[in-house]
Task: structure prediction
Amino acid sequence: MSPSGPVPPDRLERGVQVLRSWGLEVAVAPHAVATHPELDYLAGTDAQRAGDFQAAWCDPRIDAILCARGGYGAFRMVDLLDFEAMGRARPKILAGYSDVTALHQAIGTRLGVVTLHAPMIGAEPFTSDEPTRAMLRRMLFEPELVRTITATGARALIGGRAGGITMGGCLSLLASGVGGPTGPRSAAGSILVIEDVDEKRYQIDRMLTELLRSGWLTGVAAVVAGSWHDCEDGVDEVLIDRLSPLGVPVLTDVGFGHGSRSATVPLGVPAVVEDAGIHLYEPALA
Result:
């Protein structure tokens, strides 16, 4: 489904064929390739996208909701969801990243369900990069095999070891959602995973400062950055400047988020940060 922006039908079809090659039965949501009648950056109206999402979550025949793409629009539809009805349904796997961060926050906070910060089915990394596909497939079918999340080039900007519950997503969505009705009140006790795309250094600085000033980052156990695809050079210095006063480990380039390769990171699970990686205490999906 498309909870945010529209996805080109040909790109979605390529991703669907990959899923079918895994032996999955795939149902495409009614408005997955729709476009809002006046706002062409949205995949249908807010009510249509929310209706697709809630219908899928409450359908006992469906095991997972895999998002087609990000863009913008999840914040517009998330408040239309009936979380009481969704709470009575069997939990589903939710996979996606970028704008889907709004849904990760809502599902984790309201329903207490583990979600997957994972590549989009209609996006280039999923259809073109085998390691990206393979990691998502392992997480879905053999989660016991995924116990460490790291990448070549992963680095500790601020060293240390810390344990907590994974949470987070796209930095700009986290900053925008502070104080909203569907997100967590703080990141205390968490391993906060962050990433973003096409941002200037001062914009990343501003978003981190916003989270710091609001008190949202108080008590965070560690911060792990995935990728800063097409962002301005020098993000390391911003992370060190803004986050070092917290006195917690900070990693970067761990390989999830926007970019040509995207690891799958479970959100809502206990883990420990050390040696430039996230190490899960147990399989993310039972």
Summary: DSSP finds ten helices and twelve strands in the chain.
